[in-house]
Structure formats: structure tokens, C-alpha cells
């Protein structure tokens, strides 16, 4: 019962006792708010739960993004070890930044479900498993990664939401990437609908100037079709925030403590009106120790043998603050308002995302294409993420020298133009460009080598790479080489959930507060 806001505690307790079961309730969205199945308003009172991966100190990685990760939901003993501390904190949700879909999560998920703790699962992985802000695309490999994770987690009853991205856009010049985030939300939402999952779809944004963060939030929520369907709209907008600020009303911005001691005094405001008119709670950063450019975080230490948890003063203070929140159980479900989606924000100099979204990646079309291309990327290493970018640069440059171009593999979220091969994974794109070059040079054997990274496909039709694209897009499963679609993403999408629920997520320092006025 600790997992519910006070106002809901008695009702939930009676229901659980009367039925003899303790199933965690589904959380859905109505209007801009979240509700549990019993009709009470739901607030996320959570904490980030993942040990930090290896952080590179690369100057090209100023945001201290990890290069690997430890899945925190595969070690049942560790989850059981941590549960009493999460219960002391009174949290009802944990956020996990990356999981490995090939591992077993049953023990941890059931431990947390039985304790009434929801999970917010980010679908992206470090390195090549996320939308690349420098060269954004929404491709088959990412869609498949995301859907594989959903397939593994959909059997659990305590997945509150899946995040399709974390801080992909970090400044106004990168806002064109929002088109790809929105496409990811569209395809994940459509898939959840197809498997009858009620899990929500979120995005966690870095904070920044309102001239681009406000339109970003509105864009991820908007309906470019004008049909008010919400098919491409996220359900939850999280704001990773290091500061305590309030727009709308008392216009002030106060830097919070992010080095110990952290007082967590913003918790009371986040869980009270007027913040609760907009926000649905937040998550503190972080349970485990973590370092960021903003400081040191973490409210417990784990002994080196993994057996013992030691809490710090920040733990005690957060526990006290969380124990004192009493958010309003209003508006009631019946008065939560209609599901309305606004028009998408106009592009301007600080917001560059088109409302024309990239198409749903199609595995069958890309497999068909790969099998029909005359010059194929045949790497001698399994670590292809280290060489594909270099080879693409080389191949595009060579192709350009013959008068060709890489437009077919390019995607531009600002102009809303997406080449016909842009949704294929980077390796298929590379094979395509290699083939275009090979053909542009009259199928000269030496044009399909790339220092031993490419091989002529003797079975390819003579009509060429561009013709292969046309035939594979028209009839994706036409060739024997096609492995078929591993996802079922192309159907029409109905409304899932409701618009405009916002969560004041604070995955970094403190609880966030931010208002859409
Ligand atoms: C992450 O990388 C670091 C540094 O290379 C290594 O020590 C650590 O074992 C890796 N962790 C995982 C889970 O692979
Ligand atoms: C997932 O776990 C498997 C088995 O340990 C491992 O081989 C694989 O590399 C992991 N995947 C990721 C993305 O870490
Ligand atoms: C929650 O929703 C799922 C569909 O997403 C449904 O299968 C399940 O029965 C619901 N759980 C409860 C406790 O109502
Ligand atoms: C761009 O539009 C947004 C609203 O969508 C606005 O907040 C922002 O100020 C505009 N930028 C400029 C430079 O006018
Ligand atoms: C964890 O241990 C480090 C190193 O001893 C210490 O500086 C830090 O305060 C500890 N954190 C907590 C939450 O106890
Ligand atoms: C990332 O690259 C590795 C090989 O280096 C590959 O096995 C994996 O599938 C790639 N992941 C994605 C999402 O493309
Ligand atoms: C893959 O290659 C890149 C670039 O060469 C390198 O930085 C990275 O460490 C390699 N990854 C692995 C798992 O070997
Ligand atoms: C997208 O197109 C715009 C307008 O032509 C251009 O300024 C921008 O550099 C392009 N972006 C990418 C990622 O190619
Ligand atoms: C493949 O391409 C990479 C990147 O250009 C290069 O380092 C490597 O030598 C090439 N050949 C082989 C066999 O990997």
C-alpha cells in the first residue's frame, strides 16, 4: 500500500483484501492525467535504478554518456536486496535506462510487481542502439531492438511505460531529430496496440531554453494528421532537470543543490497544486552512485561483494520528503477532459522538426534489397559499428565522384525528406551505396572491394541497385533471400491511451517542475 498516494491507500487496500489478490493495477491516461484502474489519480513517485556503465571521457562525449550498461533487472538477489530500501523510500516506480532482451528478468520484475513497484523501461541502448543525434535515422535495427525488448517485457504486469529516447535532442540545432523520435513513438505505440498492451510511451528530454524545449514537447504530443488520433503522440513527457524552476505564474528559476546535501524540498511542490495540474510526479536520480557533468549522485552505496546496502543522508531526506507528499486526487477520472491533440508547431530558427515523419522501417524490404544488391558489405569483423560510418563516408565520396549521390540513404527531419533506403539498417545502406558505385563504374571488379570489406554478389539481377529498391519496396517479400518481416508494424493504428499527460521526471538531480502554459 506504500506504493499509492495517501488518498488512494484505503480504497486500494480494501480492494486487495476483499479479492485476495494483490495484482498491481494498470495505469492509463485520460486527458493529461494518469489514473489507476480503480479511478484514482496516479503520480509517479520514483527513482532511477541502474548502476552506471563505463563513462568515456572523450571530448566528443561531453554528456558523459555510457559506452556499456549493466541490466539491473537480471539479478534477482540484487533486486531483493534493494527492495526494502525502495520500500523505505516509498517509491512506486523505478526507471531503468537500458535492458538486455536476451536475458531473464522474471525474478526482479516479480519482486517489484509484488511490492507494487512499476518500471519505466527505456528501449534504447548505448552506442549503436539509440537514435543518433549527430546523424538521426529511424531504422529497422532500432525498431527491431525496441520491439524485441517490448516482446520480452510485455508479459509483466508492472511496466508503466517504455521510453523511446533519452536526451536525443540537446540543443535547438538538433531539433530536426525530433521527427525520428516521433516516428519511434508512432511505431512503438502501434505495436503496443497490436499486442493489446496498455503500457504508455514516453520520451525523456534534457532541459533547455523554452524556445526549443516547449515546441519539442508540443511536437512530440501533436497530431500532424489533423485527425486528433494521437497515433504519433507520446503519452509521457519527462524532463531531466537539474534545477528547480517554475514557469507560468511565479516566474523564477532557482539552482538546486546537486552536490550533497540534497534537500529534495522540491518534492513537496511537485506533488502539490499548481504543479499537479500539469505534472504526474517525478523520479529522483539516482539510487546507485552516479557521476555526471552536473555532479555526484546516488543515495546508497553497495558493498563490493554486492551483499550490503548503506544509505546516505540524501536517502533519509528523500524518504522523509516522499513520505510527506499528499497529491490531490483530482481532477476525477470523469472530469479529466477530452483527448485533444494540437497542431504541430511551425518550424522556425529554434525549432527545426518537420511534421512529415519518416516511414515505418520495413525489415522485409531491406532484406529483399540486401539480397538483390550487386556489391555487398561483407565485414571481416563482428564489431561493425566501428567501421560502417567510415566506409559509408568513403563509398558516398566515391559515388559522388561518378556523379551519383547518397540521397537514397539520407534522411532529413527538417525538410521532411526521407530517401527510399533511409529506413534500412546502416549495413544495408552501405551495401546499397557500394552497389551504386560498383554499377556506376560499369561493374569493375576493383570497385567492389573497399579494402576487403565488400564482395560481388553474383546472383544479383542485372537491373541494378536502384531497380532493386523499386522492386523490393513494391513487393518486400518477393525474393528468396528475404527473411520476412520480424515486426507487424504496417497496419492502421487506433487511439491508445490519451493525450497530454506529462510527468515531471527528474532523472538527473532533483524532481522537475515545468509547465506548459
Ligand atoms: C563496461 O566497460 C568497462 C570498461 O571497459 C568494464 O570494466 C565493464 O566490465 C563493462 N561492463 C559491462 C557490463 O560490460
Ligand atoms: C546481452 O546478453 C548476452 C548474453 O550475456 C550478451 O551476449 C549480449 O552481448 C548482451 N547484449 C548487449 C546489448 O549487451
Ligand atoms: C492490464 O491490462 C492488460 C492489457 O494491457 C490486461 O491484459 C490485464 O488483464 C490488465 N490487468 C488488470 C489487473 O486489469
Ligand atoms: C519558435 O517557435 C516556438 C513556438 O513553437 C517559440 O517558442 C520560439 O520562441 C520560436 N523561436 C523564435 C526564434 O522565434
Ligand atoms: C558512498 O561512498 C563514497 C566513498 O566512500 C562516499 O563518498 C559517499 O558519500 C557514499 N555515498 C553514500 C550515499 O553513502
Ligand atoms: C550494434 O552493433 C553490433 C555489432 O557491433 C550488432 O551486433 C548489434 O545488432 C547492433 N545493434 C543495433 C541496434 O543495431
Ligand atoms: C568497436 O570498434 C570501435 C571503433 O573501432 C571501438 O571504439 C570499440 O571499442 C569496439 N567495440 C568492441 C566491443 O570491441
Ligand atoms: C536538412 O536540410 C536542411 C535544409 O536544406 C539543411 O540545412 C540541413 O543541413 C539538412 N540536415 C541534414 C542532417 O542533412
Ligand atoms: C574495412 O574497412 C575498415 C574501415 O575503413 C578498414 O579499417 C579495414 O582495414 C577494412 N578491411 C577489412 C578487411 O576490415
UniProtKB/TrEMBL annotation:
Record Gene3D superfamilies: 1.20.58.1040, Glycosidases
A Gene Ontology molecular function term of the record: 1,3-beta-glucanosyltransferase activity
The protein's Enzyme Commission number: 2.4.1.-
Cellular localisation: Cell envelope; Cell membrane; Membrane
SMART domains, per the entry: X8
GO biological process: fungal-type cell wall (1->3)-beta-D-glucan biosynthetic process; fungal-type cell wall organization
Domain of life: Eukaryota
GO cellular component: plasma membrane; side of membrane
Class of this enzyme: transferase
Signal peptide bounds: 1-23
Any one Pfam family match given in the protein's UniProt record, by short name: X8
Domain X8 intervals: 373-474
Main location group: other
UniProt KW keywords: Disulfide bond, Glycoprotein, GPI-anchor, Lipoprotein, Membrane, Signal, Transferase
Membrane topology: Lipid-anchor; GPI-anchor
Keyword Transmembrane helix recorded: no
InterPro entries linked: GH, Glucanosyltransferase, X8
Task of the protein: Splits internally a 1,3-beta-glucan molecule and transfers the newly generated reducing end (the donor) to the non-reducing end of another 1,3-beta-glucan molecule (the acceptor) forming a 1,3-beta linkage, resulting in the elongation of 1,3-beta-glucan chains in the cell wall.
UniProt family annotation: Belongs to the glycosyl hydrolase 72 family.
Protein's UniProt name: 1,3-beta-glucanosyltransferase
Organism: Grifola frondosa
Gene from which this protein is expressed: gel4
Amino acid at each position: 500500500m506504500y506504493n499509492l498516494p495517501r488518498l488512494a491507500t484505503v480504497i486500494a487496500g480494501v480492494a486487495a483484501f476483499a479479492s485476495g489478490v494483490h495484482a498491481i493495477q494498470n495505469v492509463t491516461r485520460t486527458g493529461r492525467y494518469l489514473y489507476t484502474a480503480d479511478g484514482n489519480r496516479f503520480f509517479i513517485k520514483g527513482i532511477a535504478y541502474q548502476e552506471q556503465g563505463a563513462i568515456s571521457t572523450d571530448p566528443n562525449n561531453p554528456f558523459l554518456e555510457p559506452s556499456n550498461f549493466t541490466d539491473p533487472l537480471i539479478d534477482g538477489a540484487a533486486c531483493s536486496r534493494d527492495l526494502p530500501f525502495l520500500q523505505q523510500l516509498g517509491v512506486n516506480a523505478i526507471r531503468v535506462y537500458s535492458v538486455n532482451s536476451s536475458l531473464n528478468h522474471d525474478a526482479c520484475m516479480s519482486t517489484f510487481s509484488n511490492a507494487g513497484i512499476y518500471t519505466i523501461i527505456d528501449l534504447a541502448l548505448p552506442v549503436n542502439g539509440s537514435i543518433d543525434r549527430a546523424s538521426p535515422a529511424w531504422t529497422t535495427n532500432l525498431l527491431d531492438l525496441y520491439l524485441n525488448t517490448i516482446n520480452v517485457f510485455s508479459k509483466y504486469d508492472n511496466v508503466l511505460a517504455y521510453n523511446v529516447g533519452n536526451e536525443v535532442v540537446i540543443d535547438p540545432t538538433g531539433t530536426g531529430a525530433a521527427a525520428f523520435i516521433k516516428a519511434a513513438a508512432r511505431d512503438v505505440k502501434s505495436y503496443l496496440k497490436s499486442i493489446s498492451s496498455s503500457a504508455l510511451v514516453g520520451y525523456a528530454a534534457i532541459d533547455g531554453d523554452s524556445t526549443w524545449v516547449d515546441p519539442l514537447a508540443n511536437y512530440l504530443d501533436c497530431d500532424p494528421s489533423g485527425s486528433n488520433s494521437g497515433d504519433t503522440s507520446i503519452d509521457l513527457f519527462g524532463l531531466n532537470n537539474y534545477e528547480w524552476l517554475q514557469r507560468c505564474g511565479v516566474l523564477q528559476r532557482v539552482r538546486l543543490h546537486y552536490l550533497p546535501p540534497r534537500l529534495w524540498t522540491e518534492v513537496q511542490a511537485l506533488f502539490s497544486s499548481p504543479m499537479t495540474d500539469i505534472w504526474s510526479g517525478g523520479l529522483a536520480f539516482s539510487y546507485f552512485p552516479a557521476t555526471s557533468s552536473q555532479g555526484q549522485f546516488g543515495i546508497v552505496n553497495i558493498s563490493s561483494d554486492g551483499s550490503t546496502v548503506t544509505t546516505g543522508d540524501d536517502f533519509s531526506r528523500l524518504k522523509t520528503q516522499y513520505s510527506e507528499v499528499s497529491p490531490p486526487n483530482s481532477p476525477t477520472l470523469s472530469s479529466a477532459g477530452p483527448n485533444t491533440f494540437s497542431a504541430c508547431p511551425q518550424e522556425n530558427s529554434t525549432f527545426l522538426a518537420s511534421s512529415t515523419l519518416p516511414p515505418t522501417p520495413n525489415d522485409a524490404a531491406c532484406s529483399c534489397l540486401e539480397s538483390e544488391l550487386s556489391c555487398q558489405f561483407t565485414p571481416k569483423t563482428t564489431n561493425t559499428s566501428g567501421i560502417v560510418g567510415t566506409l559509408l563516408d568513403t563509398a558516398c565520396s566515391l559515388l559522388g565522384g561518378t556523379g551519383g549521390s547518397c540521397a537514397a540513404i539520407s534522411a532529413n527531419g527538417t525538410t521532411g525528406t526521407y530517401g527510399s533506403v533511409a529506413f534500412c539498417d546502416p549495413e544495408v545502406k552501405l551495401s546499397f551505396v557500394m552497389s551504386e558505385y560498383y554499377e556506376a563504374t560499369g561493374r569493375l571488379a576493383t570497385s567492389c572491394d573497399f579494402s576487403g570489406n565488400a564482395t560481388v554478389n553474383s546472383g544479383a539481377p542485372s537491373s541494378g541497385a536502384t531497380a532493386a529498391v523499386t522492386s523490393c519496396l513494391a513487393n518486400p517479400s518477393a525474393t528468396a533471400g528475404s527473411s520476412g518481416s520480424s515486426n507487424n508494424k504496417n497496419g492502421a493504428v487506433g487511439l491508445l491511451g490519451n493525450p497530454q499527460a506529462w510527468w515531471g521526471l527528474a532523472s538527473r538531480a532533483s524532481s522537475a517542475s515545468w509547465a506548459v502554459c
